[in-house]
Structures are given as C-alpha cells and as structure tokens.
Amino acid sequence: MSAVDAVREIEEQARAGLAAASDERALEAWRSAVLGRSGSLTGVLRSLGELAPEERRALGAAANRLKGELEAALEARRDELKQTALRASVTAGALDVTLPGRPLHRGRYHPLTLTLREILATFERMGFATIEGPEIEHDAYNFEALRIPADHPARDMWDTFWLDSGGEWEGAGGLLLRTHTSPMQARYMETHEPPIRIAVPGRCYRYEATDATHEWMLQQVELLVVDEGVSMADLKGTLQEFARAMFGPERRVMMRNSYFPFVEPGVEIAVDCFACAGTNPSCPVCRGSGWLEIMGAGMVHPEILERMGYETERYTGFAAGMGVERIAMLRYGVDDIRNFYQNDLRFLRQF
Ligand code: DAH
Prior knowledge:
Elements lengths: L2 H18 L3 H11 L5 H7 L6 H40 L18 H15 L3 E2 L5 E3 H4 L19 E2 L11 E3 L5 H9 L4 E10 L11 E12 L3 H16 L5 E6 L4 E10 L18 E10 L1 H6 L7 E9 H9 L12 H4 L3
Parallel strand pairs: 1-5
Antiparallel strand pairs: 2-4, 3-4, 5-6, 6-10, 7-8, 8-9, 9-10
Bound molecules: 3,4-dihydroxyphenylalanine (DAH).
C-alpha cells in the first residue's frame, strides 16, 4: 500500500469512527487513537522524515491538511453531541405552558388583627401610647382598685375565672384571669404621673356560656386619659374622632347614661348606624334602632384618682373600654362572634 493510500485509509476509518462516537468519552478515545501522541495520523506525520523529498512533500501536505480537517471535525462532532443532549433534556423536562399555573397561597391577617391594628393606629394618631398588661391579674387590680369590692353587686357584670394560687395571693384577694382591660388603669396610674394618654389592648376572659355575641375569651382596648382640665367634651370628641375613623367620616356618636363603678358619670357610647344611618326599620346591622353601641366610657371616678395620690383639684380624666370583636363584627358584618376563633378558612379567607 502506498503511503498516500495509507493516509486515505486512515481518513476513512477516522471519519467513520468519529461519526460513531456518541459521547464525550468516545470522542476522547477517538482523539487519542487518531490525533494523540501514538495515534494513527500522528504516526504518519512522524514517519515523513524517512521518505524521499518529493514523496515527503506530497504526503506531508495531504497528512497536514487531513490533521486540520479531523481536528475541525472533532469540534463539530462535539458541538453536535452537545446540541443533541440539550434538546433531549429540554424535551424530557418539557413544560406545557398552556396548563393553568399553580396558585400561590399568600398568608393574610386575621380580621381581629386588622381591626385591632386600625383601632390602635387611630388612637396613636391622637397621641395615645399603646401599653400592655398581664392577663393573669389580682382581684386587687381587676376589681378592688376599680371600686368593685367583693360584696358589690357590680361583680355580677363580670363572671370570673378564678385561679388557684395556692393561697399565695389571698392578701390581694386571689388570682384570676382578667375580666377586662380596666385593671391597667390602676396599674398605670400607680406608677405614672399625669399627663396620661394610653390605649391598652389585650385578651380578657369571662366564665360564661358562648353564643352568637358572647365568647369566654375576648379582646378589649382600654383608654385612659388623665390631665389638667379633661372633661366630658374631650371624651366625646376623642370617641367621635375614633368612630369616624373606623366607621366613616359622616358618623355621629351618642352618649347614653350607664353605670360602671370606676367612672362617674358613666356612659354607653353609640355610633349612628353606618349601614342605614337610622333610615331602615329592618336594617340587619342596627336592627332598626339606628344606633350601634360600641363601648363603655366615663369620667374617671375622683375616688380612684385620689387613691393614686393625684391632686383631684387639678387632675381629671376619662376612661373607655371597647370589645375588638364587637367592632370587627360591626365593620365586617359578621353575625356570630364564634367565627373568629374557629379557624375556618372559608371564613378567614374573606378578609
Ligand atoms: N371594663 C368595662 C367592661 O369590660 C368596659 C368599660 C366601661 C371600660 C367604662 C371603661 C369605662 O374604661 O370607663 O365591660
């Protein structure tokens, strides 16, 4: 076989081998067998020196051209294999872009959280500081300091969960789950001097049967303002401002006489019905009365201010307490308080 035939044969075999190589390992084996240090074409190039000058020139040119071509063919084959692999992986993990997307379930706030935040934000705008107090409370703060002694009939207003304190707190009348946020009035005044302007959010507990408007656990926000010259007008103005922020700028508030042992006079605050403004005798929100009771309030009883060591000639104050559930029920049209604590997603997703 002439040297030229030998090169042609190398070329044929090399091209066939390259076409058959189907992965990177096969390509590398091929490169080493043809173009490597002891590869077939390298062998030819190396043996050129043994040839006569004429033959060497002809064969040398052919062999070098072939070397260049095969190197280019190797790269081309490598690219081709990469393309094939890419296409295979794309088809394997194929996306059907016409399928509906998977919904993202975003968390959301509980309606009571939304309501509470709005209540507090409204009072913060009016300069109230938000303060929290203990849920486990002494009789001394929950009742005694608020002028509700043990034998007082007003205790019936708050059915109480009493705690067994092992006799430790008997001096303070025993421990209980606070029935309202009002005890923070006494706790705060005990340690602070006027001017006072606080809002106290918190959970309260009542030992009573649950129904559509009563839960054994509820959230309240208490307000306390003590300063020089605080009057009923401040009470009404502040609560009217609040009612308008929560229920609409047109709202009017009404004060009706009421009784709470820690205020004098005591009032019930009602806002005119935001659904019908008193025009619909069969309104489902106000049941035709035209008014919605939203909280209890009053002027802090001077006896309490005196017990706190305040100069009662100089300082007066007002207090108020509202139920967050009640406000939320009115705002969102919820007709059963028990919905708030049942964790039923069908209910919660509406807010
Ligand atoms: N603590 C009362 C309750 O739970 C609500 C209340 C009424 C709070 C009048 C007050 C107030 O501060 O002045 O029913």
